[in-house]
Amino acid sequence: MECVTSPGQPEFISGPVLLLGAPGVGKGTQAQILMQAWGVPQISTGDIIRANIKGGSEVGKEFQKLVSAGHLVPDDLVNQMVAERLEQPDTARGYLLDGFPRTLPQAEWLDGHLGTNPSGLPVVAVSIEVGYTQLLGRITGRRTCPVCQTIYNVHFNPPKVEGKCDKEGAALEQRADDTEEKFAERMRVFDAQTAPVIEHYRALGRFEAVDGDHPVEVVTEKIVAALMRLRGNEGQ
């Protein structure tokens, strides 16, 4: 089945796509744009885990048992859940990977798993990159209206009246983890987990980075252009 995009929509890129990005780069926004334009699902390990636990599957019970005991969940258990999700028919044309692969062993497993399907395409990865200072401002300046959920930023998109929602007049709130200390820790974890995954796909010629410090629609164009280049290089 072909995906026909209307004027202004991102051109369709088939197969699995991995979007990478530090907290605050806008990865979630870009994923939503591409999902809606292309009609493909977002494969989120968080969603998969919650569905398995809620559905009472054997792998879900094992996961819940490990988490309740305070143990780390082994890669093979996460891989098993992802494998089962990828067997569902909505993934046939392509999908966006969210939160997986998070580690180098997971990336290596995924390559091997996809390689067993002769008609399948390999993962191509794009990282949205924004400078640390800019990201810090995005995170620490973020404020949310508790009534309508409108998001402001005291640095880049402030409300008309300081501390008040333009629509509701309600006092804006800051998330507990939107502090400089929490952000620094999240960045340390992200760098430690993601760097090996990036180098893995870079070595395979299946990785590009794009500048995320642009308007949303420009970043979307950059992501799609990078994906088109990566898919075009696969037969070379």
Chart the SSEs and their pairings.
Layout lengths: L14 E7 L5 H12 L3 E3 H11 L2 H11 L6 H12 L7 E5 L5 H12 L8 E6 L2 H9 L1 E3 L6 E3 L26 H24 L3 E5 L4 H18 L3
Parallel strand pairs: 1-3, 1-4, 2-3, 4-7
Antiparallel strand pairs: 5-6
Structural overview:
AMP binds at residues 45, 50, 71-73, 99-102, 106, 175, 186. One of its GO terms (molecular function) is ATP binding. One of its GO terms (cellular component) is cytoplasm. By secondary structure, the chain is an alpha/beta fold. The protein has a domain at 15-130 and 205-233: Rossmann fold. Helix content is 46%, strand content 14%. It has helices at residues 27-38, 45-55, 58-68, 75-86, 104-115, 132-140, 180-203, 216-233; strands at residues 15-21, 42-44, 94-98, 124-129, 142-144, 151-153, 207-211. It has a 5-stranded parallel beta sheet with strand order 2-3-1-4-7, with helices on both faces. Strands 5-6 form a two-stranded antiparallel sheet. Helix 4 runs parallel beside helix 5 (104-115). The radius of gyration is 19 Å and the shape is globular. The two termini are 25 Å apart. The model has no long low-confidence stretch (mean pLDDT 89).
